Amino acid sequence: MKKEDCFYLGKIVKKYSFKGEVLAKLDTDEPDLYENLDAIFLELRNNLVPFFIVESQLHKSELLRIRFEDVDTEADADAIMKSGLYLPLDLLPKLEGNKFYFHEVIGLTMMDVNYGTVGIIKGINDSTAQSLFEVEHDGKEILIPMNDEFIVKIDRENKTVIVETPEGLIELYL
């Protein structure tokens, strides 16, 4: 399984017991969707390796307590510590309307109600307090805040994201 065919679910953050159980912090608004998985991919030395889950349950709401097959000791748990957790993209619940996953909008054309075609969405910058669309326009990068009030429509059929940005925001970059 290749990383681009998967989505990041979270990360193993600490050991839970001396029997190899671990706690994973999930990067999701709905952790209960992932409570009864049979298997998951762990990122080990830049490869995704399948691990089978013997038992898992939510622990303090945002953590998932996991017992993996063949991870039976603290040393086994240490070996997978800080590993990223991944699942195949087809396991993502489908979103509708103006809700979207970041990977879904990359490559789509951004249109502004007032400005017209802004450009192609090349990425999402979520390292700031406000996530930003990174849009390429004639070799220049335009950053558009990912604000619910700006997003008019996610048109999956026509591969466009329609926004209405404050006057002058786009021109600021050009």
User: How many beta-strand segments?
Assistant: 12
**N-to-C SSE string, H for helix and E for strand:** EEEEEHEHEEEEEE
Sheet having the most strands: 6 strands, antiparallel, barrel
Q: Tell me which oligomeric state these chains represent.
A: single chain
Principal-axes geometry comes out as elongated
**Which regions contain 5 or more consecutive residues with pLDDT less than 50?**
none
What's the helix count?
2
The third-level CATH topology of the largest domain is Elongation Factor Tu (Ef-tu), domain 3
Assigned CATH superfamily of the largest domain: RimM
Strand sequence of the main sheet, in spatial order? 1-2-5-4-3-6
Distance between the termini: 41 Å
Give the strand content: over 45%
The CATH architecture of the largest domain would be Beta Barrel
Radius of gyration (Å): 20 Å
Q: Could you name the CATH class of the largest domain?
A: Mainly Beta
Give the domain tally.
Answer: 2
Structural class, please? mainly beta
**Average pLDDT over all residues:** 92
Write the layout of secondary structure elements.
Blueprint: E1 6-15, E2 22-26, E3 39-44, E4 47-59, E5 63-68, H1 74-80, E6 84-88, H2 102-105, E7 109-112, E8 116-125, E9 132-137, E10 140-145, E11 151-155, E12 160-163
Parallel strand pairs: 7-12
Antiparallel strand pairs: 1-2, 1-6, 2-5, 3-4, 3-6, 4-5, 7-8, 8-9, 9-10, 11-12
Can you tell me about this structure?
The chain is mostly beta strands and 174 residues long. The protein contains two helices and twelve strands; from the N terminus they run βββββαβαββββββ. Strand 1 (6-15) and strand 2 (22-26) form a beta hairpin. The longest helix is centred in the middle third of the chain and has 7 residues, at 74-80. It is elongated. It starts with 5 loop residues before the first strand and ends in an 11-residue tail after the last strand.
